[in-house]
């Protein structure tokens, strides 16, 4: 070896070879694949010259619109159907979508450079695992949701925060999304059925592709009801009921009895499928209002990705209504949200916090911030934390003080 730099390049080449050989093994082992990705990222940060790292930031702005365009035009779908060895040409993509071949080449060049597709010949593209992944309906809904909900508001973030003199953003109507779009997020999407559908469909997959779920870490045997007529679990703001459906499947093997209830806004629960509705009752309910009589004294009130949507003041209102519905010594609130690390937060968790700031003045919280929030609701206390991945998703278990 002539120098340490040669050694580094040789080691990286070996690592590259290993990574491509282990692709399918890594895909089924998320913790280890994240560990490998973190090591690779730290090497990239150490070796990439600063101007190119700066370009990464500046040019990242085009990634989402380019993917969205290729999805809308049908190019990504056509590529996933192509032979992985020979691919499909830009001319063929252009002919199928009646597009300009030169334009297809420009967009596809960028998507190949950013590894969304493979370039298997000049102007010829084949799918990789990410191309296929982006075609999963919930994830293409995620692309539609992010590209329609966020850019208008993020463009105005610097001015909005300067106007606020860099204080914590207040809730609607003084939040960033309303500042940029003239209406709060949930009002805005309610008036746009395609955007609402994209958001709700993305919610179904948003956290389920990330590895273990709350059902894998929370001791479900704690959720025993006194009688089978009692309410076992209410999914508060549960979307179309995907988590409740998964819980209903899981409880069968655990002998957990009791009723299940889905609560959400009217235009959301209406889209809960008939098949899922066999597992649970459905209620239109605004979580800023008290629980209805039938939902008082449930064993568990489950809130997934709800608290992170809202600033503390709104969370306190939601939690106070649940506290009033809880039976002391029996009921519990289960919050399934991120529990951030105090330092070295992952990009996904830190970016999720930015998304929450943008869309509803919400926030992701550290353990200390969860303690502080729950401490502000009279009569509630945290009993335990359960962690799905360190610094990421977890369950905060809350009981009513006796
Ligand atoms: C981030 S999504 C989470 C959905 C679901 N819990 C999940 O994890 O996939 C937030 C949910 O809160 C619902 N929501 C928003 N405002 C609400 C309100 N005032 N009352 C009840 N549900 C509301 C939305 O319709 C949406 O389904």
Q: What's the CATH topology name of the largest domain?
A: Rossmann fold
Task: Give the second-level CATH assignment, the architecture of the largest domain.
Answer: 3-Layer(aba) Sandwich
Hetero groups: S-adenosylmethionine
Low-pLDDT regions: none
Domains, number: 3
The radius of gyration over CA amounts to: 24 Å
Q: Helical proportion?
A: 40-55%
How much β-strand is present in the residues? 5-15%
Distance between the termini: 70 Å
- CATH superfamily descriptor of the largest domain: Vaccinia Virus protein VP39
Mean residue pLDDT:
95
Query: In one word, what is the shape?
Result: globular
- Number of E-state strands: 11
Q: The biggest beta sheet, please?
A: 8 strands, mixed
Please, how many helices? 21
- Coarse structural class: alpha/beta
Q: What is the CATH C level class of the largest domain, in words? A: Alpha Beta
Explained architecture:
This protein folds into three domains: 34-134, Winged helix-like DNA-binding domain superfamily/Winged helix DNA-binding domain (Arc Repressor Mutant, subunit A); 138-206, no CATH class; 214-343 and 358-400, Rossmann fold. It has 21 helices and eleven strands. The chain has helices spanning 4-21, 23-27, 30-47, 50-59, 63-72, 75-80, 90-97, 101-113, 129-134, 137-149, 151-163, 176-181, 185-190, 193-206, 214-217, 242-252, 266-269, 274-277, 312-325, 347-360, 367-375, and strands at residues 88-89, 118-121, 124-126, 231-236, 259-264, 281-284, 300-304, 332-340, 365-366, 380-387, 393-400. Strands 4, 5, 6, 7, 8, 9, 10 and 11 form an eight-stranded mixed sheet that branches. A three-stranded antiparallel sheet has the order 1-3-2. Helix 5 crosses helix 8 (101-113), helix 5 (63-72) packs across helix 10 (137-149) and helix 7 crosses helix 8 (101-113). The chain is globular, with a radius of gyration of 24 Å. One of its GO terms (biological process) is methylation.
């Amino acid at each position: 070896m002539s120098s340490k730099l040669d050694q580094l390049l040789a080691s990286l080449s070996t690592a590259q070879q290993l990574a491509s050989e282990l692709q399918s093994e890594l895909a089924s082992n998320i913790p280890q694949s994240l560990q490998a990705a973190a090591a690779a990222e730290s090497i990239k940060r150490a070796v990439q010259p600063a101007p190119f790292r700066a370009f990464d930031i500046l040019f990242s702005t085009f990634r989402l619109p380019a993917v969205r365009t290729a999805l809308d035009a049908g190019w990504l779908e056509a590529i996933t159907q192509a032979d992985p060895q020979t691919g499909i040409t830009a001319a063929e993509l252009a002919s199928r979508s009646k597009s300009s071949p030169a334009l297809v080449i420009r967009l596809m060049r960028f998507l190949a450079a950013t590894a969304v597709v493979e370039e298997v010949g000049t102007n010829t593209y084949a799918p990789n695992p990410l191309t296929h992944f982006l075609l999963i309906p919930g994830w293409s809904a995620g692309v539609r949701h992010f590209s329609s909900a966020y850019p208008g508001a993020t463009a105005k973030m610097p001015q909005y925060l300067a106007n606020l003199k860099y204080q914590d953003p207040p809730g609607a109507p003084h939040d960033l999304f309303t500042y940029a779009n003239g209406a709060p997020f949930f009002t805005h999407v309610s008036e746009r059925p395609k955007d609402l559908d994209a958001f709700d469909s993305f919610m179904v997959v948003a956290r389920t592709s990330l590895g273990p779920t709350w059902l894998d870490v929370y001791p479900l045997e704690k959720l025993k009801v006194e009688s089978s007529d009692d309410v076992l679990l209410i999914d508060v703001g549960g979307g179309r009921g995907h988590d409740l459906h998964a819980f209903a499947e899981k409880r069968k093997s655990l002998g957990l009895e009791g009723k299940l209830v889905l609560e959400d806004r009217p235009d959301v629960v209406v889209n809960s499928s008939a098949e899922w509705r066999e597992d649970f009752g459905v209620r239109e309910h605004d979580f800023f209002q008290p629980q209805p009589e039938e939902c008082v004294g449930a064993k568990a009130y489950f809130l997934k990705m709800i608290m992170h949507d809202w600033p503390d003041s709104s969370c306190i209102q939601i939690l106070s209504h649940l506290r009033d519905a809880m039976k002391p010594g029996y009921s519990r609130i289960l919050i399934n949200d991120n529990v951030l690390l105090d330092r070295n937060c992952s990009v996904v968790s830190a970016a999720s916090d930015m998304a929450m700031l943008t869309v509803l003045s919400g926030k992701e919280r550290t353990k200390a911030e969860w303690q502080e929030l729950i401490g502000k609701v009279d009569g509630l206390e945290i009993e335990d934390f359960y962690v799905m991945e360190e610094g990421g998703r977890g369950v905060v278990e809350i009981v009513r003080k006796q």
